[in-house]
Design goal:
By secondary structure, this protein is mainly alpha-helical. It is 41% helix and 10% strand. The protein has a domain of 80 residues. The chain contains 5 helices and 4 strands; from the N terminus they run αααββββαα. Strands 1-4 form a two-stranded antiparallel ribbon. It has a two-stranded antiparallel ribbon with strand order 2-3. The model has no long low-confidence stretch (mean pLDDT 83).
Length: 125
């Protein structure tokens, strides 16, 4: 895991009370794990302000227990058969969880570093 942000960074960006009753150290650790899982491109040694701001937003979500939520099966369709050829079908998928507004904002901030490095810029002369 890469340490993109620290508690001091988040305190500077959001103020010292950002964690509320949550654990700021755990929240920042979760935010760094979240950023590490999302960022696919190399990041400069001096972490860009956008990544620090994204980390702060995610740490705030983590401080409320909203970042790493339990994953439940969600229903896409269901099959129920009844007499007379009447049926309804239901299919389950696993792992679909809505993003919080903080996570959505963070994804927008880190967009330049989220795309994989498999693309090559072509310049024609």
């Amino acid at each position: 895991m890469t340490d993109f942000i620290t508690v001091a960074d988040v305190d500077t960006l959001l103020g010292s009370g950002w964690a509320g009753a949550g654990d700021p150290v755990l929240s920042v650790m979760q935010a760094n794990a979240w950023l590490t899982s999302k960022i696919k491109r190399p990041v400069p040694a001096e972490v860009p302000a956008e990544i620090k701001q994204a980390g702060a937003q995610v740490a705030k979500v983590a401080s409320t227990g909203g970042l790493y939520k339990a994953v439940e099966r969600e229903t896409i369709s269901e099959t129920v058969s009844a007499g007379g050829g009447v049926s309804v079908s239901e299919t389950y998928i696993q792992g679909s969880v809505a993003l919080s507004s903080g996570e959505s904002f963070a994804m927008a901030l880190i967009y330049p570093w989220v795309n994989g490095t498999n693309s090559i810029a072509m310049v024609r002369g």
